[in-house]
Amino acid sequence: MIGALVGVLEAVAADPETRLSDLPVTLTARTVTGTGTGGGAARRDGDRDREAMLCRAFAEVLEVDAVGPHDNFFDLGGHSLLVMQLVRRIRREPGGAGMKVATLMTAQTVAELVNHLK
Q1: pLDDT at 36
Q2: Strands in 1-118 per DSSP E
Q3: Same domain, yes or no, for 117 and 67?
């Protein structure tokens, strides 16, 4: 983990205009902090399924390899047009029909969205 962070810092120090997509590794909350999806009570299977679906949807729309539950949509390169695509994608999934653009604007991570889709 430390090596990955050093590589990122070196890349940004060499060129402050470096884009996230040009960095040598993809950092998530898990790689930076070394934690899993966070503490708290055990989640139900339905929440895990929703979380996995949302992570896949985020990754597909953002065209990245993987998205963790605490990765912010906008920090990963999301913008207003991609919000529309993501909302449309989520609405096609079971339990996602009520997804609204405004919800994604306020709940910008998978972990936050899972609570809105209950």
Answers
A1: 45
A2: none
A3: yes
